[in-house]
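#structure-requests
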Amino acid sequence: MNHREDIDGLRALAVVPIVLFHFGAALLSGGYVGVDVFFVISGFVIARSIAADVDAGRFSVRAFYVRRVCRILPALVVTVAITTVAAIWLLLPEDLVTHFRSVAAIGGFSSNIFFWRSSGYFEAAAQTRPLLHSWSLAVEEQFYFFAPVPLALLHRRWPRGWLRAILIVAAGSLAVSIAMVFTAPTAGYFLLPSRAWELLLGAAVARASAAPSQKPMAREGLAALGLAMVAGSMVLLDEKSAFPGWNALFPCVGTVLIILAGTGAGRMPVANRLLSTAGPRAIGRISYSLYLVHWPIVAFFQYRLMRPPTASEGAAMLIVSIALAALSWRFVEEPVRRYAYRLRDVPRAQWRVIGVGLAVSTTLIAAGLAGAAAGGWPQRFPGYHPVAVSGQELWGGATCFNENPSRPIARRADRCTRTHGQGGRVLLWGDSHAAHYMPGLIAEQRALDRTVLQYTFAGCPPIFAYFSAARIGCSQSNARVPALIRHYGITRVVIAARWDEVPWRTLQQLHLTVAALQRLGVRVTVIGPSPIFGVTPQAFDYLSGQAGHRTGTAVARLDPGMTALVRREAARAEYVDPLPSLCPNGACPYRSGSTWLYADDGHLSAAGSRQAARAFMIAALTRGP
């Protein structure tokens, strides 16, 4: 195949925004879409290679996987090994266990599934996981399991139908992606079915021998439009944007247009020529290693300093990342690439490479499982002694706090009458961030003098418009609320949730829920966001050096825009802001003496819940008639 230098530059256009986004560049709020640009490029390069091999009569699945093993595994394994050494030195026991589990998932080509099950990409806790970025490699690896043979057969047996067939499958994957934005956004972000269309878009244009039009101005227009779509998505999208879904069309279609504009004979468009210059090509060549090495650096930084990097710190990390990536490319990637080229016609040696690849993957799985089983070697930190903090055991068990996502909350709400009083009946409705107020209300029920019915569901926000295929029981539970109000004579509904985990398009429907409740004749109180720390208070206490102090304080990691949106959406209800009470002057006490006020990185302990009850919850439940 003819090597396209503009594709090298396109890789630079993909990786640089990713790195800058992770290092805190405010302008590139959508820099994460560089991964989508990479997906399109990968689909294009892989399908183009398969088509060329079929045309030359030398295509074999064995040779395909040899190239993939030599391309992906060496730099990845070196990065995982060095990162794991650093993790053993830096991570606290529970976080080291999670790290080793991610190592095992990488060995099993399933780290995207692991991170889907354990966290969201933008969650505060996820930002300190040093191998989080491996999810995108797992998506590509899974694509490589399914794609080679169908693409080869399609090119050999039905070349005229190549484009049509690929676009049909891609359209199905895109439909899944759009649907999952609404029904299972975390799964949609991480999993292959909602990402395959991006790789397939690249594959669709792999057989193109020329741009759609050979007119110079038309090609210039294609390239300029493509570049504008990619750059615009990197600037205009952010962490709150529904993604991938339709928003991913902009960077992906833009990448396709750039590739098409540079296809064929004649003078390349200006955009493609710029991408072909020395600087972008140099970054493009090391883009894979740069992607691999940059994230562990920033993840360890955020873990130990418990804050994002400043501009100067981000610049320093960028320089270090580029230097390490250049070394990885020079001493790992390039030697292995040359070795793989020499093996292109040596079947026996190719089988050895595949065997080594399988052995390496097996070793990663075994090492990851063994490391996780070791419990994080707590003896590394002799002064760190985490203890279980009471709180969740007082949430009412499975009856009052439903954790089964496929089933609704039990119909008999009277079984979850948690306090008794003469001042009317109150329904406490929400997720775990509603349930964590219950221990304090029970402890202070004499001062409360209200009958409180608890109606809580893990991960289920109290918004009628919310729907998730991953929590089908949630919408069923929420739909029963009006009947509960009428049946039990509820006079006030108090709703609370971890609002930062509610998709913004759903959060913007909160005012409709408030209005629907008010039409039922009840008073509505919305409890705003409570503090989120990103790490457990005990870990923060140890890492920040506050363990020997009388009290411990931290700054909550909450998005001010999200907090303001909740307040606006609750404008027609009574709104209670917990932060002035729980975080006076912006600092949030998480420990008072030996008493922990939080059970984990965001849920109040029994003691913290009682403090919240005295500070604002009793007033919220008893204000007015």
